[in-house]
Amino acid sequence: MNNKKKFALIAALSLGLVMTACQNNTSKDNPSNEPSVTQSSKKEDKSSTSKEDNKSNKDKDEKEGEKKTEVSLSDWEGEWNDMGGYLDKKEIQPAFKTLAENEKIDENGAKENYLKKRHCDFGGLRIKGDEVEFLNDFPDKNPELKGKGVYKFVGKQEVEHGGYKMEWDIFEAKNEDAPYKYLLMMPIHGEESLTHFHMRYGDDKDKLLQEEGWYPTFVKPSTTDQQIIDEITE
């Protein structure tokens, strides 16, 4: 074989090796570009869906939280007697002697303090929906209507009294002729002994919240004298 043929054969073999190497390198550089892109897209879709689910759950939790904090005046719906209407009854008077002994003060002072604590300017309530009727006596005694108002819930306020934290639900009158602009209500409690709730009323919300020692109290018409006595002497 002459030199020209040898050089031609070597050149051909060299070119073939180069082409093969180029093809292999191309395959390694992008062996599976398409599947890789698809996998990335799936991750992005999954991440996007997860974010949307989290946002949806957060919105749901916020709405449920709003429902839990929302209060309706209908929670107190029914007829209620002012506790003060019982306190001058003959049957109740022995309770003030016990109260005086417990507080280590004289009986007259004990009764005076307690009457001041429970003082109320009306004798009973009728609550239906968001409307309150203020009565001059117990609802079952054919009372006169002293006034009425439609009230909306406007918020809660936590206060401290005697080392304890209490929370008032605040309602504001929607009608201008309501006898009181604001009502402060505590939840109904004491079902195991005396079902009752405390309420404050007036036109100055801040003053009502800051008031010390004034808790008008309302009880069910079925309340007995003994339940009132137990409440005074507890």
TrEMBL record:
Domain ZinT residues, every copy: 70-233
Domain of life: Bacteria
Keyword Signal appears in the UniProt entry: yes
Coiled coil segments of this chain: none
Molecular function GO labels: zinc ion binding
Region spans: Disordered: 23-75
SUPFAM superfamilies in UniProt: Lipocalins (SSF50814)
Signal sequence segment: 1-23
Ranges of biased composition (kind: Polar residues): 23-39
Keywords: Signal, Zinc
Entries under Pfam families matching the protein: ZinT (PF09223)
InterPro entries referenced in this protein's UniProt entry, alphabetically: Calycin, ZinT_dom
Biased composition, class Basic and acidic residues, residue ranges: 41-70
Protein name per UniProt: Metal-binding protein ZinT
